[in-house]
Design brief:
- The chain is 27% helix and 21% strand.
- It is globular.
Length: 205
């Protein structure tokens, strides 16, 4: 059972009637240059300062992950599932849907890895948590007062804070695009209708 109150559900679960769009890559165009990863990491770095090699003080943390398989390279990222298994598996309700985007609240996240195991696409990763360039340390309740870097679950949020996802805007090969389920369905139906029409025409002769 969800732990959100009714008011929170109204705020965070504004589910629409449209299917959730997501970013998809064309493996035939991708050359594995990792520009999408760098653009993603830069777009999600707090602060307005332009990041360069000389002033980056935290590890590059993209929210999509380039996968190589032989001669093929393609980025993998969140599909923003309609009934997201990551959200269903989260024990602290750190994952919610807002305007067709599945989001993770890093302040609620406890780093339990449940969402990682639940995601069928491997699109979620645990990332070290930083605050103003400094690692956030959590104190474990052990006798030796051990300290450990804090982690949070991270994945594509479709750059909800930008007009266009950074990976799409910066891909040099135009290999990434927003996949609109309704548009895809319409185009497939039109193609099927044309095919059937051609078949019927040939059969009538």
């Amino acid at each position: 059972m969800s732990k959100h109150t009714d008011s929170e559900k109204g705020l965070y679960m504004r589910a629409g009637t449209r299917l959730n769009p997501f970013v998809v890559a064309d493996a035939n165009l991708c050359i594995g240059c990792r520009v999408c990863e760098i653009a993603c990491a830069s777009a999600h770095t707090k602060g307005d300062e332009l990041l360069t090699i000389g002033n980056i003080n935290t590890p590059i943390q993209p929210r999509l992950y380039l996968v190589r398989d032989g001669q093929t390279a393609v980025p993998v990222q969140c599909r923003h599932c309609e009934d997201a298994p990551c959200a269903q598996s989260c024990p602290v309700d750190a994952i919610c849907q807002v305007d067709g985007v599945i989001l993770i609240d890093d302040k609620r996240c406890i780093g339990c890895k449940s969402c990682m195991m639940a995601c069928p696409f491997g699109a979620i990763e645990l990332m070290p948590l930083y605050d103003q360039g400094r690692p956030v340390i959590q104190h474990l309740p052990l006798d030796n007062d051990e300290c450990k870097q804090a982690y949070f679950a991270s994945k594509c949020d479709r750059c909800a804070h930008l007009e266009e996802p950074a990976c799409i805007a910066n891909c040099t090969r135009n290999a990434l695009k927003i996949f609109q389920p309704e548009n895809h369905k319409d185009s497939r139906m039109v193609a099927a209708a044309k095919s059937l029409s051609q078949f019927a025409g040939n059969y009538s002769h």
